[in-house]
Amino acid sequence: MKPRVVLDVAPLPENSFGSRTLTWWGTIGFMCLEGMGFALAIGAYLYLRVLQPSWPMNIPPPDLLPGTIVTVILLISVIPNYFLEHWARAYDMAKVRIGLVLMTLLGIAPVIVRTFEFPALRERWDTDAYGSITWFLLGLHTTHLITDLGDTAVLTVLMFTRHGENPRRFSDTSDNAFYWYFVVLTWLPIYFVLYWLPRIG
Amino acid sequence: MSAAAEPLRDTDLGESELEARVRSLWRTPRGVIGWLSSVDHKQIALRYIVTAFFFMGLAGIGAVVMRLQLATPDAHVVNPDRYDQLFTMHGSTMMFLFAVPIMQAVGLYFVPLMIGTREVAFPRLNAFSYWNYLFGCLFLWFCFFSNNGPDVGWFSYTPLSLSQYNVGHRADFWAQMITYTEVAGLSVAVIMIVTVFKMRAPGMTLDRIPLFTWSSLVTAFMIVFAMPAVVVVSTMLILDRMVNTHFFDSSLGGDNLLFQHLFWFFGHPEVYFIFIPATGFVSSIIPTFARRPMFGHTAVVLSLVATAFMSFGLWVHHMFVTGLPRLGESFFTASSMAIAVPSGIQIFCWIATLWSGRPVFRTPLLFVLGFIFNFVIGGLTGVMVASVPLDTQVHDTYFVVAHFHYVLIGGSVFPLIAAVYYWFPKVTGRMLSETVGRWNFWIAFVGFNLAFFPMHILGLEGMPRRVYTYSAEMPWGTLNLLSTIGAIIFASSFLLLLWNIVRSLRRGEAAGPNPWDGDTLEWATSSPPPPQNFTRIPVVTSLTPLWEHRETLPAVAGLRVDRREVLVSTLTEAEPDIRESSPEPSIWPLFAAIATGCTFLGSIYTPWAIIYGALPVTITLIGWFWPKGTKEDES
Ligand code: HEM
Ligand SMILES: [Cu+2]
Asked: Are residues B480 and B386 in the same domain?
């Protein structure tokens, strides 16, 4: 069918941020499905818990220290993350580089402390169902941390090459920062379930 | 970022020059590498469709072999072990590798055309998802052909699927290949949501979205929220089998019903991933052949959304015989019966549209009428098994097998074949033969009912499902023979369809852009659609744009023609907002899929594969995302 031009889109921008872009919505989509995975894993934890007269089954609750350190690091990381997203929107290359390096370091730190969290559970995954589900939850979130760390690291390197000089990369940086909030946010219920539920319930 | 010379735009070119230019911009490169690098949503969707039909064929042959085994008492066509593998492969393939992917794939092909855009969001993710899916299919069937197919039923219940009862790697293959192919399903769902939300042609406000597009959108949402459950549960299963976790081991605090809850939290909505797109086909076909817009358009959209929400509250009806609390069971009975209401509303709207229109009975409409008939029967038996006492009686008998084939085949495969007849001209530029189509319909309709109606009676007479044979004293012989004859007739209707396709590809009548005088945008472009779908993005002013504009189609100007460009619009009003670049073809999604595939395959033999596999996966992902300095990357 013959087209009849009624609208000129030439004045529209070629790059934007947040909910105006496709990537942002894609990120939301993946957050929904990953969030659902976490919710179901937590559901499985609660389900197994009500079946047992005592929980943890035979041992004291996990050691609080490493998990709490991870929580504190993650909460602190939100502040530079906020600024990074801000700088990206302002196309401020120098500050974005600093922010990305900082966020890469703040991604490595919790992964290191995380290696102490597994022993802090005081039980291996193959001892009983309590061990299985706690390792499962912690493992899920660790995968999450590592993949986001990888993403941030690659983006950081990219921003130091000639490919960084591209509006689209700033939008990517902003989406990356947005995703980090999600990594932090999903940790909080898991932290509560793993460390505090056995103490209060 | 530098403001170089103004890029070339469509306004700088004449109509035929523009068409040539945009076409070459969006064309997939020639040659093997080009083919493997394609990101064109139409090509990828078509690969999905062909692959899904191929594996449906294998699973269908498996079904015919089962029916031959059951045709007479004490038969020896296959041994019991093979029979177990056969029904497991049949069920798993039909559900995971055929029905869900093909419904998503039809959406991948037509949704961008219907909403007036040139590509899906994230075309490379789309290519990646296809390769994942293909490798998953191949791995699973390779196991079967090496006599190592999974043999614990399509839902692989524990404890039967745990290592004490299932030695070897049969159940591991099931678990890993399900996880792996579901990654593809989840990716496509995200692609679909973003495409429909943000890439609609200017003017396509929410109330102008075609019904099939709605159905794809609603399904994608359901997939996003339901499919993670099966990924979680199949991962737990393989962990129990491989590294001795105890999720399902009741002696150490695990629980078998946890498996069932997680599986059916996904499994029940899955039925609706298959059914809702099928209703989308029906809602596209009926208005075209009734020659009037859909009666109750808004009511249909609301029923789709209602069905989606309600389908998450039904899963326990698969577990009525597991001894759950009585009150809980009553709730799930009520919800299972209530979900019939929105489906009923849709059926009412379809009939009202046909009633008040001037229906033209071509093959697509015949299949749709067959669908309505069969689906009503399936729905009735569904309401029956939703009640606990009845379900307790017929649970795990052929009554259930009859019920779900009426819903799955009657409710989805009939509309799917209708969709093949309806959209084949668009995809290939040629019509399927109408005469063969009518034969196709009647053979399918008679064969299907003959194959599956007797199973209701067999079930009431107590014949259990998943048995490889029965003795001659049982009064089941005649009905089983009848059912087998029906199955062969039904299967031959697919051979007829295949023949019709092959013949029409070569000699079919030329279709032209809009052979049925359809009302939605896919019919505005040529058949088959050019690589760019539309040389100029259309502007939408009504729900039935092609019935509104008979001569010329309102369109957009001002897009760049020196790079692949798509229009991103606002969520509700579909006002044009950004001109974004769309990625070029790339071989990296294939490499990434090979790396992930090998990792999954390795993980069946050793958990360390996850660690070894991480490196190649990372490298291929970096290769995928690293900018190559093309115009698409640059801005
Ligand atoms: C030629 C067409 C078909 C025939 C003759 C057929 C036949 C059968 C038979 C005889 C069984 C029961 C095996 C047993 O319990 O021992 C079965 C199971 C099943 N069928 Fe079909 N079928 C056909 C098509 C389909 C389609 C199109 C779907 C889905 C879209 C499907 C989904 C299933 C499922 C999920 C099972 C359950 C497998 C299990 O018990 O684990 N079938 N089929
Ligand atoms: Cu169900």
From this structure: yes
